[in-house]
Design the sequence.
């Protein structure tokens, strides 16, 4: 593998990862701006739709981010990357961690949304549990 092929693959994978992550963030932000409290079953339904979309994006971000990282490790161990290349990739990883922390705060905000009654609280907690613990959530099971 040449350094040109490495950069083409790495930048492509990282771009896919970044675009999917950004899209997911914007979807969560739109939901968060629209719904400040779970007040009805329709709010729960909107939450489910948004979270299903988030998990579909995870099917894109996990492989593309993972493959980009594996590619970096492979090229690092085969001495393809110079010190400058390595520093650049480490900076990109640090930027990713920063943006991931912003997304995580929004996920926590959505997880902690209040609900107007006990039944909606339980349903919201069940939906959030499924979202956080299943890769492809099925909320109706």
Sequence:
């Amino acid at each position: 593998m040449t350094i040109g092929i490495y950069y083409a693959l790495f930048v492509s994978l990282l771009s896919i990862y970044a675009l999917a992550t950004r899209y997911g963030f914007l979807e969560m932000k739109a939901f968060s701006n629209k719904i400040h409290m779970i007040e009805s079953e329709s709010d729960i339904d909107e939450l489910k739709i948004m979270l299903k979309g988030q998990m579909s994006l995870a099917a894109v971000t996990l492989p593309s981010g993972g493959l980009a990282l594996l590619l970096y490790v492979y090229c690092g161990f085969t001495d393809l990357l110079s010190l400058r290349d390595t520093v650049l990739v480490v900076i990109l990883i640090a930027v990713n961690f920063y943006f991931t922390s912003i997304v995580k705060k929004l996920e926590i905000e959505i997880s902690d949304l209040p609900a107007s009654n006990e039944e909606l609280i339980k349903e919201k907690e069940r939906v959030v549990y499924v979202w956080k613990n299943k890769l492809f959530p099925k909320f109706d099971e």
Summary: The helical segments are 3-34, 41-77, 83-111, 118-133. The chain is about 80% helix and 0% strand. The radius of gyration is 19 Å. The mean pLDDT is 90.
